[in-house]
């Protein structure tokens, strides 16, 4: 009945599911309106009524198949005790962890409980969704979250990579703590009404091949195992961005229900190697939504022709850009439905 969940569970969907990463956000004037009312971005994340409202905004405008909880991956380290701020035009500013003492200070016990407002948002949204739209909860991948905790904000991740490469014991402990909180956090989202989960390991592609198993695959596998222990049937989408040819290894190691991939990866080749048990999600280049009409249409067509039938969730290769015209998204959805004849 819900195309997103059908694809994730290996059933044939009534139509190809579509959703977009960062579908609630600054490209929508109605988002900017609510964001202004909330004050700061974090105030918006922690105001369940307003966060539910912006989660639902893209569904009102576009014929999408999923809502994604409006929150951020960095609320997890904040809930573990690190101060967090989002500075206008600069991005996140997070208190850093740089040694064993810093890791010891992190609060694992209360972290997931501290995020009660997020679960309230989930349950408010779930009540508003019609019977065809799925609700996606999420967390960051442990590598991506740990890298922000080490770097303190948007960066080239060199410091975090150096710590990981040296195999510092405190890095391993940090990752384990992030995993533990993430499992609890995702389970509580499921208990509040999330029907599918996505792990955003946005910086997976930075990690050199020899460290991928320990730093990227294993932590995501542990998060998924932990969630499945309590909620065996909740489907998980793994988005380990930037692995290129390494996505097959991620899928074999982690066994997600779907694999989200960045632009440039061939969905047909990937799907052929994964088999029918794992669906693929992606992967229109976000910049194509800003291109001329002809280039835009050709790029959409190329993704559709390459995607495996019945085993594809349409998405972008990364988040939608703030300068995209909302009408382009209307057109995108129309083009996909037209191609599918639905
Ligand atoms: O997809 C959605 O619509 C759900 C909401 C969502 C946000 N962030 C809202 C947000 C999700 C799933 C995220 C995930 C997230 N957050 C990731 C992983 C995905 C990715 O994009 O790679 C990362 C790395 C972050 C951390 C983060 N949050 C950064 C680096 C920034 C600043 C850059 C930016 O885009 O502004 C944010 C801020 C943020 N998160 C905004 C939104 C809507 C913009 C805040 C605003 O309104 O000013």
Q: Can you walk me through this structure?
A:
The protein has 342 residues and is α/β, with parallel strands linked by helices. The protein has one domain: TIM Barrel (Alpha-Beta Barrel), CATH 3.20.20. It is built from 16 helices and 9 strands. A 7-stranded parallel β-sheet has the order 1-4-5-6-7-8-9. Helix 14 links the parallel strand 7 and strand 8. Helix 15 packs across helix 16. The longest helix has 24 residues. The relative contact order is 0.14. The model has no long low-confidence stretch (mean pLDDT 97). It binds coproporphyrinogen III (CP3).
Count of DSSP strands: 9
The span between the termini is: 15 Å
The class by helix and strand makeup works out as alpha/beta
Query: What is the strand content?
Result: 5-15%
Give the distinct bound molecules: coproporphyrinogen III
* Overall average residue pLDDT: 97
Name the overall outline.
globular
Question: What characteristics describe this protein?
Answer:
342 residues, alpha/beta, TIM Barrel, seven-stranded parallel β-sheet, two-stranded antiparallel ribbon, 16 helices, globular, binds coproporphyrinogen III
Note the topology.
Elements: H1 3-8, H2 29-38, H3 41-45, H4 48-61, E1 66-68, H5 75-79, E2 84-87, E3 91-94, H6 100-105, H7 111-114, H8 116-128, E4 134-140, H9 142-151, H10 158-166, H11 169-192, E5 196-201, H12 209-230, E6 236-240, H13 247-254, E7 258-260, H14 267-274, E8 279-284, H15 293-306, E9 312-316, H16 326-340
Parallel strand pairs: 1-4, 4-5, 5-6, 6-7, 7-8, 8-9
Antiparallel strand pairs: 2-3
Helix pairs in contact: 2-4, 4-8, 8-11, 9-10, 9-11, 11-12, 12-13, 15-16
